[in-house]
Amino acid sequence: MSPPLLEVRDLRAWIASGQGAVRAVDGVCLTLNRGETFALVGESGCGKSMTALTLMRLLPEGGRIVAGEVMLEGRALRPLSEAQMREVRGGAMAMIFQEPASSLNPVLNVGTQLAEVLQRHVGLRGGPARRRAAELLAAVGIPDAERRLDDYPFQLSGGMKQRVMIAMALAGEPRLLIADEPTTALDVTIQAQVLELLARLQRERSMGMLLITHDLGIVSQMADRVAVMYAGEIVEEAPRDAFFAAPRHPYSRKLFAALPTARRRGASLETLAGSVPALTGEFVGCRFAGRCPDAWERCRIEAPGWTDMGGGQRVRCHLYGADGHAPQVRRAEQGEPTEGSVPAEGDAVLRVRDLRVHFPVRKGVLRRVVAQVRAVDGVSLDLAAGRTLALVGESGCGKTTVGKAVLRLIRASGGSVSFDGRDVGSLDRAGMQAVRRQLQMVFQDPFGSLNPRMRVGEIIREGMTALGVAGTENNRAERVAQLLESVGLAAGMRGRYPHEFSGGQRQRIAIARALAVSPRVVVCDEPTSALDVSVQAQILNLLRALQENLGLAYLFITHNLAVVDYMAHEVAVMYLGRIVERGPAVDILRAPQHPYTEALLKAVPQIDAERRRPVIMLKGDMPSAVAPPAGCHFHPRCPSAFDHCRSVYPQETVLGDGRVVRCHLHS
Amino acid sequence: MTPVVLWTDALIFALLAVASAFGWYSRHNPLLRSAWQKVGGSRAGMAALTLLAVFAVVGLLDSLHYRPRLESAGGDGERAVYSGEVLSALDALATGLRSRGEKTYSAPLATHLFARETVERADGTQFRAHPRLRHGGVHLDDPPAQHAADLARRFAAGALSGAAIWMVLAGVVALRLARRESVGLGVTWRRIWRGDTAVAWNAVLATFAALLLVAGPVIFLADAYHVLGTDKVGQDVLYLALKSVRTALVIGTLTTLVMLPFAVALGIMAGYFGGRVDDVIQYLYTTINSIPGVLLIAAAVLMMQVFIDTHAQWFATAAERADARLLALCFILGLTSWTGLCRLLRGEALKLRELDYVQAAQAFGVSQWRIMARHLLPNLMHIVLIAVVMDFSALVLAEAVLSYVGIGVDPNTFSFGTMINAARLELAREPVVWWSLVAAFVFMFVLVLAANLFADAVRDAFDPRIAARVTGADSGVKG
């Protein structure tokens, strides 16, 4: 029997840091066969990317492989010299990185970069290399490949760049492809294209693929076998079907339970207490014991070994050991959708009518305006007290701009935003200050939204001082303490600086800051997209609890449809600066009427039993907002476009139940 | 005597006060404190800081000015008469160096003049010889025989006293550390030399050891000799070099002080407001940048010189006039050198403006000026601090160049530039008079090197990107 494609035994890699060596990879064993997709799943900081880098021997500065063996096609990689290793990298195994924008050299054209790989690993030069490069680009689905060879990376979109990266990885005819979060930086519709491409290439070339991801949906769609990583080691390994039917390790189960879905609407999501332990020391007992709801003494004393569950599934957990009391295995998904307590739809607090934000494009010495970027082009919304309106769309569709224009952080070029019947656009400074007390924002990046030079207390107090809320300094200090407690932090934390907090805690601080002035409407701009699933669950629970207790209304800007399904009462789908469909969340998500909404929903990788569902592949990328296509903006990518779509922009069609769609199919 | 406060003195002490206030603020701000602790742990940084501190002490002593009272001819009833000459505390300490002038050039540690002179014997015949110095080595009866032994004796005595002082110093440091950590003196001592202390005391003490081993002999030798020789008019070169330190420090620090408000205010405004404000500020600094710097400075200095000359009545003493010119030079250098920092700050502010915490503040209706002061400035401070320490050495060198070209400080002001300017003719002599140039070179080299090393340490500690990398790579295992 020939050896497996990749065999990793007890791999350990340490990275030097200020607090001692971090054991980023601590005893990883895995086996990968030809033509197999092996998914490595886990939250950030669990060591999955570091495992990939260790396999490639590309550890960052201060990192070293301490122990273990890596066998590629029966050949040990650790004893190889650096020169031999260069032969292996890109030759026998290749890697695709997360960020396509930074993995291509911006000053070389695509053809040159491909030719470099071809020369190194296949020995092709000149004409043949160019022909082969064109073939590779065609193979990864880049139209007009011959001409694209002369393009520079800045001329390509994100999805295209990732395709070029894949082509470069394929150039050396690798037998093993390591894909490290290959689609995390991409939009869902582009993600669907890239995943489909990867699956096809793997089938055609019968490559082995090590897929590293945090998204269980992608795993469900792509993987043959799954391994869950936690704190530097693999805690569960199973064939895909067995894993999704019955995840065994408590950590795996928590990952499933933390996913927001419609079925959990109205109920709290399960969360994980605490955080991943520091990896600087030796572990006694199970690494997960501190956060595990089922842990007992043995877990704290003795590190669990592998327990075979049959059918290729094995788990590192005492629960399944000799004296373990294995919990009831249940399907990850249970229960029926519940509506929760939806407040009745009242009068709109926030009313947006025909909002336009155009950014002028200036050129030449005199800086004359030569064109307009129509970031937001006629958006109308209504948001009632106590309700959540989700604004959904891919990056670049203008959804964040809508949020900022509502708060007047960006000047609108046209249309109106009215809050409680007052036109926000025409208010003077004093009037605007009054509105700002009622209307606040929570930002996407918890690391960029807190001033690193201010203490948490000062950050929260700033808004109160600026808007003259809560009178005296004493009252304000008291209010800061209350707020910190209401978002689940200790009042004593006010004297600390933001860098002492984790991402989830920072987002709590940002929420406390917004709540400090007792707003009625909060614009949440992707508040969980930078967070891990378990932390996301905490933040969503918090937002939901605050909505119930304080009657807040949320304008929830996001691209994550699962979160929409869990949180939103109404949904508005944006495409290229305009809303193409809006209405109650349940209706839109169950029965989308606009082809774009439908494609968007289908493109999200789902966790379900049937393996590969039909996905509506959208062709190409979103067009530029400087020169939107004539007629319906969506027609170049729409599978059901007809002649009329190419010339006339569709008017709003009311479908009843408050549903509105802009599509000729319905008019 | 009556104290005299020159303009630059006042500004130097104001600067000292500001620096102390910043130090006090840093102590109470954990972010700044940890950054300074990083500087404290850097060996090169602390050695450089020790040297800079010694230079600063010399400069500060030289900034305490007074006019001595003249011995009045009349009785007690007469009004006190003060000398027209302004002296400083440094002059008082180094009275010997200042007052023991020779006739002209003499080599370092010499007993005779450098050049032959025609000497008339008692019998009226003339011959050419190296005459004895008026002060250098006068205590020797037979210089050729006794000179070397005397030098060696003084050197040894100096080195010994230097070593003794160092012992005391090291003992005090170790004792205080031991007291604070409440461990034995021996343990503390070993810790210091293994580099186990939070502040790199081993670097500080080693620097002091080197310094005292040089300074001790110099002080003992300076009692009877001119350690670095004398210049054309017989002034002690060591004295000239010590006096030049103040000029260098004034130029290096006050210029930055003049430049900072422009660079910070305009840079932040350009970056934050953007649009028309940005256009105007950008045009302003590109315009200033496109005028050749030396030309602009030359024009300004010449105009200022004429102005000072025509208003001679404003200045009571020559020192005041020279001081006014020094201050003016600082202003001129400052006004022409703010563009680099301004451009850096504009770029950074442009980036920070888009950050969410600035937008969050805007969403709270926080005023623009407050956003700039509370959100932008503290996050730009590391750039300002790094630029200040980096510019210091460049400015010290710039002063030397400008004085050499003749558009720098007043010819009466002691400065490295004027020393080098004088050395131009000395180097053309045969045999060469090399010691002025070497003295200026060594002093300036040590000062600028210390400033540069300190600047590196500050940058490593305060620049967030570098700080992250340094801590990652500095400690622990390497692959």
- CATH homologous superfamily title of the domain at 348-666 in chain A: P-loop containing nucleotide triphosphate hydrolases
Give the number of domains of chain B: 2
The assigned CATH architecture of the largest domain in chain B is Orthogonal Bundle
Q: What is the CATH level 1 assignment of the largest domain in chain B?
A: Mainly Alpha
CATH architecture of the domain at 348-666 in chain A: 3-Layer(aba) Sandwich
Number of helices of chain B: 18
Structural class of chain A: alpha/beta
Report the CATH topology name of the domain at 348-666 in chain A.
Answer: Rossmann fold
Q: Indicate the CATH topology of the largest domain in chain B.
A: MetI-like fold
Radius of gyration of chain B: 27 Å
Strand order of the largest sheet of chain B: 1-2-3
Q: What's the total helix number of chain A?
A: 21
Main sheet overview of chain B: 3 strands, antiparallel
Name of the top-level CATH class of the domain at 348-666 in chain A: Alpha Beta
Could you name the ranges of chain A where pLDDT drops below 50 across 5 or more consecutive residues? 329-341
State the shape of chain A: globular
Can you give keywords for this protein?
heterodimer; A: 667 residues; alpha/beta; 21 helices; 23% strand; B: MetI-like fold; three-stranded antiparallel β-sheet; two-stranded antiparallel ribbon; 18 helices; 70% helix; globular
Question: Could you characterize the architecture of this molecule?
Answer:
The complex is a heterodimer of chains A (667) and B (479). Chain A has 667 residues and is of the alpha/beta class. Chain A has a domain at 348-666: P-loop containing nucleotide triphosphate hydrolases (Rossmann fold, 3-Layer(aba) Sandwich), CATH 3.40.50. An eight-stranded mixed beta sheet of chain A has the order 6-7-8-3-9-10-12-11, with helices on both faces. In chain A, strands 18-19-20-15-21-22-24-23 form an eight-stranded mixed beta sheet, sandwiched between helices. The longest helix of chain B has 39 residues, at 143-181. Chain B has helices at 7-28, 30-41, 43-61, 89-93, 95-99, 143-181, 185-194, 201-222, 237-273, 275-290, 293-310, 318-337, 339-353, 356-363, 368-405, 416-426, 435-462, 464-474; strands spanning 2-4, 65-67, 87-88, 117-120, 126-129. The A-B interface holds A 14, 16-18, 20-21, 59, 61-65, 404, 407, 409, 429, 432-433, 436, 439-441, 443-445, 448-454, 459, 462-463, 466-467, 497, 510, 513-514, 517 and B 30-31, 355-357, 359-367, 370, 374-375, 378-379, 471-479.
